[in-house]
Design brief:
The chain is built from 5 helices and 8 strands; from the N terminus they run ββαααβββαβαββ. With about 190 residues, the chain is α+β, with helices and mostly antiparallel strands. It has a domain of about 120 residues: Gcn5-related N-acetyltransferase (GNAT) (Aminopeptidase, 3-Layer(aba) Sandwich), CATH 3.40.630.30. Strands 1-2-3-4-5-6-8-7 form an 8-stranded mixed sheet, with helices on both faces. β1 and β2 form a beta hairpin. The protein starts with about 25 loop residues before the first strand and ends with a strand. Bound molecules: coenzyme A.
Length: about 190
């Protein structure tokens, strides 16, 4: 099935924000655990490396749609976060461990970016994914992004449900091809 993409918003210059790290909030999950969500920066390399080592290989496979890149590549990406084109929101538990990441990246100043999300295996199914994605959508809109896209395996039920939930409050277009789904969230 292929749904029609909505009309593209005219290209808007990315809104420049005062500094990387502007996003900051606290959430209580449905099991009572608390997380602080904030933008990641190069100081978070150790936390990200630890989260990568802890991650379930099957989750990494779903996140990267295949074999994940080497850790060094992922850490280098952290140095490119600029609060406008490349943003990664990290959820930290009370011990300071990184337990979830939602990020968007855009290659130019067009109001479109690709996003990806991953929640630590010990934290899944407690609404952290939903909260992180909601935060990312708000942050992306602040940055002048109008369309967030994602690709995912069609048998990845949690992300399909997550996108369906987003679709109840904003327009989400989906298309499917050879076991891969593509979603375009219209941020208006
Ligand atoms: C996708 C992902 C981020 C969801 O995180 P999460 O914290 O478990 O999400 P939530 O608890 O907010 O649940 C979101 C939806 O998924 C459903 N869900 C969660 N775990 C599920 C499971 N194991 N089986 C089926 N549905 C599940 C929830 O019920 C919810 O749907 P609902 O609103 O209809 O009840 C997480 O599963 C993950 O990290 N997966 C690996 C990486 C990945 O696949 N990324 C997506 C591609 S970029």
């Amino acid at each position: 099935m292929t749904a029609t993409l909505s009309a593209r918003a005219p290209a808007a210059r990315p809104r420049s924000r005062t500094a990387v790290g502007a996003f900051h909030c606290t959430h209580r999950l449905d099991d009572g655990r608390r997380v602080v969500v904030r933008e990641l920066n190069s100081d978070d390399a150790d936390a990200l490396a630890e989260a990568f080592r802890r991650a379930d290989p099957a989750d990494l496979h779903r996140r990267f749609l295949g074999w994940p890149p080497p850790l060094g590549v992922i850490l280098r990406h952290l140095h490119h976060t600029d609060g406008t084109h490349h943003v990664a929101l990290g959820a930290f538990d009370d011990d300071g461990s990184l337990v979830g990441v939602a990020q968007f990246d855009r290659s130019n100043d067009e109001p479109e970016a690709e996003f990806a999300i991953e929640v630590d295996r010990g934290w899944k199914s407690h609404r952290l994914g939903s909260l992180l994605l909601t935060d990312l959508l708000a942050d992306a809109r602040q940055c002048g992004i109008r369309h967030l896209t994602a690709t995912y395996f069609l048998d990845n039920v949690p992300i399909v449900r997550l996108l369906r939930d987003v679709g109840t409050v904003m327009h989400v277009s989906t298309s499917y091809d050879a076991g891969i789904g593509s979603a375009d969230i219209d941020l208006g």
